[in-house]
Amino acid sequence: MNVQDFVQKALTHQKEPKEYEKGGKLLSKPSAGSSWTKVSCPCCFSERVEPLVLVKLGGKVGPETKRWLIKVIGAPQKDGGAALLAHPGEDASGDIIVVSAPRCTLLRAAEELGLCKTYRSGDMEAFSYNDRDNFKDSGVFLTLAERQYIVKYELDGLRVQRDLRIPGLPESRMLQKRDNIWQKLSSAGVVVDTFPLHNRKKLKDLGEAWYSGNQLAQPLDSVNDYFGSAVAFYFSFLDFYTWSLLTPAILGLAISYFSVAFFSSEVKKEMVDSVSGSKVIINDDDSGPMISGHMLQAMFSMIWSTVFMELWKRRSSSLSYRWGTMNLAERFAEPRPNFYGDLGVNPVTGRVEPLFPEWKRDLRMVLVSVPVVGLFLGLVVLGMMCFYWGEAQVKQLHKDWNSLLSQALLYIPSVLHIVYTNMLGNVYRNVAQSLTEYENHREESAFENHLTAKILVFTFFNNFAVLFHIAFFKQDVPLLRKRLASLLIVSQLVNQVTEVVIPFLVDRFISAPHRTESEDDPKEDKFRNQRTLPVFPGLFAEYIELLVQFGYLSLFSCVYPLTAVLLLINNITEIRSDAYKICNLFRKPFSPPVANMGVWQVAFEVLSFVSVISNCWLLLLSPRLQELCREGGLSSTNVLLLAVFGEHVLILIKFIMAALIPDEPDWIRKKRDQMEYTSMQALKEQVNAISTDFIV
Amino acid sequence: MNVQDFVQKALTHQKEPKEYEKGGKLLSKPSAGSSWTKVSCPCCFSERVEPLVLVKLGGKVGPETKRWLIKVIGAPQKDGGAALLAHPGEDASGDIIVVSAPRCTLLRAAEELGLCKTYRSGDMEAFSYNDRDNFKDSGVFLTLAERQYIVKYELDGLRVQRDLRIPGLPESRMLQKRDNIWQKLSSAGVVVDTFPLHNRKKLKDLGEAWYSGNQLAQPLDSVNDYFGSAVAFYFSFLDFYTWSLLTPAILGLAISYFSVAFFSSEVKKEMVDSVSGSKVIINDDDSGPMISGHMLQAMFSMIWSTVFMELWKRRSSSLSYRWGTMNLAERFAEPRPNFYGDLGVNPVTGRVEPLFPEWKRDLRMVLVSVPVVGLFLGLVVLGMMCFYWGEAQVKQLHKDWNSLLSQALLYIPSVLHIVYTNMLGNVYRNVAQSLTEYENHREESAFENHLTAKILVFTFFNNFAVLFHIAFFKQDVPLLRKRLASLLIVSQLVNQVTEVVIPFLVDRFISAPHRTESEDDPKEDKFRNQRTLPVFPGLFAEYIELLVQFGYLSLFSCVYPLTAVLLLINNITEIRSDAYKICNLFRKPFSPPVANMGVWQVAFEVLSFVSVISNCWLLLLSPRLQELCREGGLSSTNVLLLAVFGEHVLILIKFIMAALIPDEPDWIRKKRDQMEYTSMQALKEQVNAISTDFIV
């Protein structure tokens, strides 16, 4: 009692203005009833409480409901609370609750999540609450992103211990035992929003190190601190990918430069071919090099995409070690809030929680999800076919009529196709969400991965179907080249504009005037203002942009050697614009700790695999090779057989290369072994201790 | 001292004849100086000592050397001994030492090896010496194979603690610190042989349950008990594979039966084609079914080989759980005896041992092993080409001369080729051994796997090069069919004869007369007699036979539907003959605990992958399909394109199927999670205990 009073006092009486401004840690007006809830253990006493998360309540929520909610947030976990700290904002009737977390809750959750931290020995070790004193700087060592995620984790995990009526709400909103409180409150409109708060000072420092100057390297560790590992992995990958583009860019430039004379004549020839529609080669130019740039680029692409992915895997595992996410224990933690199932004892952890059999989920995936996704992919193909059919019809019509009306009609198929594709995309997104929800994944990451995979397959199909069609059915290299170049230039311009310029303008001239902040504003208003920012849309769009880029590069770049150069230029600006965007234009997102890029890693690997096939094929279409074959007197069937054989050999080489380059650097593997060995030893020692106890 | 004397007494004075005969556990004549060494801890006192391993000494080994060796074997591990029990045989000057192991040594080694045993709760848990009382039947629960392997493991691990001269050996044989004792003794001719002893009674029971009756199921658990998990995995796989052959066998019979009329006409037609050398089809028979047996079988083979491998993986992981080898800790144990490197502290376990950097090994593999293996594969191809060239030359010669001499000459290329292939094979085996030794693997299993992989690639190449040549270059289906049928029938007959009949005859009529045992023979002589049996040649030949079979079936069976039937008949006898062989015709082998089939698993998977490609190709060669295409007016290039497309889709389907069928059954995954969770918890608890200690 004494200690708690003391803490309470310390918390409420710290009010030198200097402190507020410097650290931004305390709320300003500690009037009656508006102070932090009490911490439940003496060790968590701290002079300054850092506001981490803002909970926005619905307009009609009465003060008794708010008081109850604050009590639940502040209650210890054994009483069914979240063991966090809550602050009611300016007064008890306001519509926000500011939430923070005491040290003990943070550390216990860090252990539960399986975060690794620097041990006394300098190595990363799985954090253990009981051993906290042996970890370096155990007081402040959780990053801001981790602290905020833990608050969300605890709030999401709140469950009712016995049937309960929430004060101020009608009878119909009764909570049943084991109901998820936060979910119920959200659906009842009591909680409208829960989002992490920006820390202006840290954000300013981060921005300066990240996108303000001319620096080449990104401050990835600080990004991880501030935005969490999911965002940091995206930027690390972007970084790694951009630097890796240097080699193909240089090669592309060299090919374009050295073979410009030969190349231009070749292109001219092809143009003539494609325009005339015939495939007769005018054999006037026989002085070209044995291996054309096309072939060189195709072979290089295959090797590059494999080596790039293998090296990234190594980099990724080093980063995961560095950021302490290599040993996440998500599958031992509580299931995600939306997970449902019959209550039972988890056979692994022994805790009572909803259980859902694996085979049921598999069945749902195979019998429901796969066919539905296949259906939508079929609809994409159908749309493409209708588009081609319509175009042919309209062209025919235009030929027959040749009027202004028929000229206008020419645009109709494209417009219809674009509308159709967009509608399909929107419907599909909702369907994918419902399907993944229906699959009922236990872990948040599994849910995310399955959802991403579904949308990914569709988007990929949407983006590449046309190019594949041109390359493999029409077999029209010049058209492919034209299409690729225009896609690269147009889509990148459009992306940059829609992603950065428009949000920036909106932010500056439309939203910002409503959000003018002055130094004198109470903290609460500053917090509330963050709600006017749009919600961060997630990294999906960013990743898919990279994936499509990578696809252009690894699948088709041999027909247009400047692809890598264009991408390199684009990405160097992309790094800065993405950084600016996430820092300034959106609310701070919650970011769970992750150990890698998840399903994106797989997507890139699949692409790098497909690139072997694609490049083999494009190599076969290479005009120079076809010429050589014709000269050598090989029949087209034999050439094709050779190509198939070559493709299989190349795929084999790719597999061998992927197997030979270890996925983890040697030192990471050793550390991992060491961790395993330590926990194995611990198991034995523990048993030893118990048996000694018995003897004693 | 008191306890040890008592144990000693108990060991030497137990001499009721009944006991000897019943358990076969005690040596017969405990004369002066010929008794078991003393156990070093009171808990290991046992009334009966079971002879496990026989060490055969060289003829010129003096009694003082033998005494020294017995002392080393019996000394506790802290004094540099093996903590085993040794018995000098009939007297101190005899040339054998019988070795056994006390309970404590066995249990500690079981923990070190990471064996799992049934815990009190009924689950398998990693065995822990300190927790031994909580494991079921902890007194006798190590299997015979495990006990014998542990004896070998301890003997192999003996290292000199300080420079030492072995009594009775010349100065030149001085042992330096950290020298491996057993290795040095073997090279000095002191130890000639170390092999595990058969247990006649257990062997008789096993044989009765295994191959004597008409039983369908094999007693796999008993096999694992007696021969160890490596042998048990082989027989389990053989079992699983044989039962899996039922489906393709039934299909093959059905195809042969229903389409016998159509088929025979087709075959006849093909014969005509191949004899006349032309590819003109006499279009007299158009009433065949749309899909021929050939096509059906090809498609079935692809699916079957995938499903079979996936299901076997699940079965394999269940077996590994059942036999307690799912959690082996080989990489934390001592390195294998031949491993060399600079002495240093192992960063994982903290023990002082030789260290050898990973990158050096990788470098050796890439720069030395891969090119050398490639060279030998090249020599195989060269041999094949020379053979074809020689055959053509000789045929030409015979045509020109047409004499008896030239008739005889016809056989020369084949004979030369066989001699060449055999010589190459022998040279290669030695080269592979040296290469793998040079790669310097730390773990025994890694060494075995790399050695097996090297020989495997070569043998596979040797076996299938000709068939692939016929199928893909000559494109001659009837020849392929003939070749396959003759290979299947001849090679199986030859195998059965060389593997079983000859050893059986040799054993019965040549070796056995020298080995007549009577009940009155002293135990020592019975032990010594086991040395007259040949050494068990390992499972390599058995596995390669299965692999080649599996290759015939999955790669080429569509051209000869009865393949599966022949293989099924062969394998049913193979199970019995292999069982008989390993029980009766050879010495008992040492068998380290293993968690799966190791590199063989990979080999079978690669084959099942190649089978997709091969079947696609053979499908394309199918006479019925070619006819259909010709009718449909498709050009051969287009057909080929379709086939390539189909192949890629099928490979995709195969990958998806392999990904969708989990490698482990659900319950195994749960158990594994549980074990991980327990050891994670233990790590925390241990730290907790330590911190509490500090507080106390």
UniProtKB/TrEMBL annotation, chains A, B:
Q: Which InterPro entries match?
A: Anoctamin, Anoctamin_TM
- Where is the major localization of this protein? membrane
Transmembrane feature ranges: 240-263, 365-389, 401-420, 451-472, 550-573, 640-661
Q: Where in the cell is it found?
A: Membrane
Q: How does it sit in the membrane?
A: Multi-pass membrane protein
Task: Show the GO cellular component annotation of the record.
Answer: plasma membrane
Print the keywords alphabetically: Membrane, Transmembrane, Transmembrane helix
Q: Does the keyword NAD apply?
A: no
Segments forming domain Anoctamin transmembrane: 223-674
Task: Tell me the GO molecular function terms.
Answer: chloride channel activity
Superkingdom of origin: Eukaryota
Q: Which family does it belong to?
A: Belongs to the anoctamin family.
Name of the protein in its database record: Anoctamin
Q: Which species is this record about?
A: Haplochromis burtoni (Burton's mouthbrooder)
